[in-house]
Design brief:
The protein has about 375 residues and is α/β, with parallel strands linked by helices. It has helices at about 40-45, 50-75, 100-115, 125-130, 150, 185-195, 205-215, 220-225, 245-260, 260-295, 310-320, 340-355; strands at about 1-5, 10-20, 30-40, 90-95, 120-125, 145, 155-160, 165-170, 175-180, 300-305, 325-330. It binds 5'-O-[(R)-(carboxyoxy)(hydroxy)phosphoryl]adenosine and zinc ion. Zinc ion (ZN) binds near residues 126, 130, 305 and 338.
Length: about 375
């Protein structure tokens, strides 16, 4: 079957096509056909973060174009986009969580298509999309999905601009949230931290680059230098629960950095980027492995924009060496970013597993901006 995925929960408008088929051994094989993304970063950059009204306007202006581009990539021989619906078996759209007025654009666009072409419409959680993105191969590459027994039970760390979650995954669709952030998300802390350091939005990739510069320059005498510099806190590192808190870390950075003269700020900008990245990733890694120690799991799954952070990947990989049978599943870097392909995949799995296919009706879909999974 072919699934059309649509994603507009934040500042990326995305449309994807995914082919999903049963193999002879009754497992599933998947082949991504297209994953078109229009990013609004340039629009929001001057405001230092996503402005919901602008996001909504951009989604509604761009979605037709993004849809046509995805159709051209997936079905180059089809000239009339309407003919594509002869090939599509179902639609999947992000209906939660996210910015309400942004979600509405994708949901209403897909409701109209579902109604016009009489195709089922599956509502998908953006978080579930990130969680399953490790399964996605490159465009036009076919892979068989690993057997469930090879992955689950698993601990999933989902870290994005809006969410920081630790989830116990018992099977596809069977999720138990163990902990979440009590205030800012990890990505938000990278973004706000970057703003404090006078850097632009989104902060994560820039902080990561400056941190890397710092590491390279201080390869030989790093620890000696660092001892003299102010350190940042690792909030909730040792608490008994699986929750996170990042707003205090941001405030600590603000106070430490504000105290400095302009000259010192310039000299220490890379150091503070390094220290911020270390503090955020220390907490994420510690809490993830605390869950691994307390639950008998086969794997760790990572997903979300912050998983593009190479230092986080490195630390998870290092710590996983203490657990020889533990597998670590990471999405390809390009699938860390918001995209509709992960939504198509989550939608396909939900659709195939459901015994109530009639429920996937466009009239029943609601936008649930604050619901997680
Ligand atoms: O998942 P995502 O694309 O959008 C949301 O669902 O929020 O995540 C965006 C977040 C931003 O906060 C961005 O700064 C962060 O992911 N990010 C990174 C990196 N690349 C993106 N954070 C740390 N290191 C990176 N390399
Ligand atoms: Zn996301």
């Amino acid at each position: 079957m072919i699934v059309l995925g649509i994603e507009t929960s934040c500042d990326e408008t995305s449309v994807a096509f995914l082919e999903v088929n049963k193999t002879a051994k009754k497992s599933l094989k998947i082949k991504p056909l297209a994953n078109t993304i229009s990013s609004q970063i340039a629009i929001h950059q001057k405001y230092g973060g996503v402005v919901p009204k602008l996001a909504c306007r951009e989604h509604s202006e761009n979605i037709d174009f993004v849809f046509s581009e995805a159709v051209k990539t997936a079905f180059p021989r089809i000239k009339n986009p309407q003919k594509v619906f002869d090939k599509i078996d179902c639609l999947a759209v992000t209906n939660r969580p996210g910015l309400e007025i942004a979600l509405l654009i994708g949901v209403n666009f897909s409701r109209a298509l579902s109604w016009c072409f009489d195709k089922p419409l599956v509502p998908v959680s953006h978080i579930e999309g990130h969680l399953l993105s490790f399964l996605l191969p490159a465009i036009n590459q076919t892979i068989a999905l690993p057997k469930k027994e090879e992955i689950f039970p698993a601990i999933a760390l989902i870290v994005s601009g809006g969410h920081t979650l630790l989830v116990k995954v018992n099977d596809y669709g069977k999720y138990q949230v163990l902990g979440k952030t009590r205030d800012d998300a990890a990505g938000e802390c990278f973004d706000k931290g970057a703003r404090i350091l006078g850097l632009s939005y989104p902060g994560g990739p820039i902080i990561a680059q400056l941190a890397q510069n710092y590491r390279e320059k201080n390869k030989t005498n790093g620890d000696k230098n660092r001892k003299k510099l102010p350190s940042l806190p690792r909030p909730m590192l040792k608490t008994k629960d699986y929750d996170f808190s990042f707003s205090g870390l941001k405030t600590a950075l603000l106070y430490s950095y504000q105290k400095l003269s302009k000259k010192e700020q310039k000299q220490l900008q890379e150091y503070f980027a390094f220290e911020l990245e270390e503090a955020i990733t220390d907490v994420l890694v510690e809490k993830t492995f605390k869950a691994v120690k307390n639950f008998p799991v086969k794997s760790i799954i990572l997903g979300g924009g912050v998983v593009a952070n190479l230092r986080l990947r490195e630390k998870i990989g290092e710590k996983a060496k203490d657990f020889p049978s533990l597998k670590v599943f990471l999405p390809e870097l390009k699938y860390c970013q918001d995209n509709a392909l992960m939504i198509a995949l989550a939608g396909a799995l939900n659709y195939l597993q459901s015994s109530k296919k009639k429920d996937f009706n466009w009239q029943k879909i609601k936008v649930l901006a604050n619901e997680i999974l």
